[in-house]
Amino acid sequence: MTGLEGVLFDIDDTLVATREAFGHAWSATARRYLPDLPPERDAELVTMWREDINGHYSAYTRGEVGYVEQRLARANEVHAAFGGPVLDAGTFDEWDAVFDGGFRAAWVAHDDASAVVDALLAAGLAVGALSNASVAYQTDKLERSGLLARVPMLVGVDTLGFGKPDARVFLEACRLLGTDPARTAYVGDELDVDAVAARDAGLVGIWVDRPGGRRHAISDAEIAEADVTTIASLDELPGVLGLLGISAGTPATRA
């Protein structure tokens, strides 16, 4: 990794504890829309929401459906599975106010995020964010999480009209970051659309596989076939990037 120029980060479940924030969102939503569901089952709602087995969010990132359309479809699928009412265009706004309000109120950075960002910047690397959500939404998320001043939001799904795993979004993010793609690492929590897609776009793909954080089951064979660098937390990132003598939060010069 000699000559590394920059690091691009995914946001959700990489820098920001989004899974936990979805827990807050669904707890608030369930008490109003799924009153017969006991709170101890709220985790099941989060699991189904994040799995999105019918790929509504992926269709959104490909530019095939709108943001509201995908969220409404996913909400109705969860409601159907857990006994909630059918939502339509007339009732969705009220539902989304409850859900998104709970979600936004719980946005915080992962405990390992801030110190690692500081370490990378101290090492002279450029740092930015590339996400499959909109630029405005993710800018707000980074700001509320205390990261925006150090991690600018560069590319969202609305920048080019589509998102990851398309190689063009990675290349556009590198252009805006001012780095050579071959000398840029991309760090994300999804094996396929983050680490593998970044590698295929010519970047250094790194998968942060947080314990208990996977959206889908991934076999050992799939991981072996992907053949990308894997870390269990961002604390490991400076080491795998080859920043000799640097640990998270310790200023150093680039090796």
Layout: helices, strands, pairs:
Layout: E1 6-9, H1 18-33, H2 42-51, H3 56-61, H4 67-82, H5 89-105, H6 113-122, E2 126-130, H7 135-144, E3 153-155, H8 157-160, H9 167-177, E4 184-188, H10 191-200, E5 204-208, H11 220-226, E6 229-231, H12 237-240
Helix pairs in contact: 1-2, 1-5
- Describe the main β-sheet briefly: 6 strands, parallel
**How many domains in all?**
2
Residue stretches low in confidence (pLDDT < 50, at least 5 long) are: 243-255
What is the fold named in CATH at topology level of the largest domain? Rossmann fold
At the fourth CATH level, what is the homologous superfamily of the largest domain?
A: HAD superfamily/HAD-like
How big a fraction of the residues is strand? 5-15%
Whole-angstrom Rg = 18 Å
Strands across the major sheet, in which order?
3-2-1-4-5-6
Task: Give the gist of this structure.
This protein has 255 residues and is α/β, with parallel strands linked by helices.
Question: How would you characterize the overall build of this protein?
Answer:
By secondary structure, the protein is α/β, with parallel strands linked by helices. The chain is 47% helix and 10% strand. A six-stranded parallel beta sheet has the order 3-2-1-4-5-6. Helix 1 (18-33) packs across helix 2 (42-51) and helix 1 (18-33) packs across helix 5 (89-105). It starts with 5 loop residues before the first strand and ends in a 15-residue tail after the last helix. Mean pLDDT is 92; it is low at 243-255.
